[in-house]
Amino acid sequence: MEAYLESTNPHITVAGSFLEQLLIIYDVQKSQFAEFIGLEKTNLYALLKGRRKFNNVIATKIGEIFNIDPELWLFIEAKNEMKAYLFQCNVHEDKQEYKLANLLKKRK
């Protein structure tokens, strides 16, 4: 997870895929896990597939279970949002250059 956060690879890996790997490693059934953390199965599946994002409560519960800093889950979500935004910006080339030099030029 930390390697993913440090990576400059533009590919997005949803936070849920890391959780899914943990469930496989520890041989925990998804339905059992969903019940244990108080989440409906459909919501867990959405989380695993990236259709639902980790929030503070979910990150904290999962962090406690697997002894992983809850912030790590939230950092992955934030990184993925930024990657998606930057991809969208690159698709739309008509954007303005947001540089300090351009801002200071406008003051003159």
Quick overview of this protein structure:
By secondary structure, this protein is mainly alpha-helical. It is built from 7 helices and no strands.
Order of helices and strands: HHHHHHH
Q: State the total count of DSSP E strands.
A: 0
The end-to-end distance, rounded to whole angstroms, is 46 Å
The tally of domains stands at 1
Give the averaged pLDDT, no decimals. 91
Fraction of residues in β-strands? under 5%
Determine the structural class based on helices, strands and strand pairing.
mainly alpha
Overall geometry comes to elongated
- In DSSP terms (H or I, runs of 4 or more residues), the helix count works out at 7
CATH architecture: Orthogonal Bundle
CATH superfamily: lambda repressor-like DNA-binding domains
The CATH top-level class label:
Mainly Alpha
What is the CATH fold-level name? Answer: 434 Repressor (Amino-terminal Domain)
Calculate Rg over CA atoms: 18 Å
List low-pLDDT spans: none
Q: Bin the helical content.
A: 55-70%
Let me know the largest β-sheet: none
Overall description:
The chain has one domain (2-107): Orthogonal Bundle (434 Repressor (Amino-terminal Domain)), CATH 1.10.260. 69% of the residues lie in helices and 0% in strands. It has helices spanning 2-6, 15-25, 30-37, 41-49, 56-66, 70-91, 100-107.
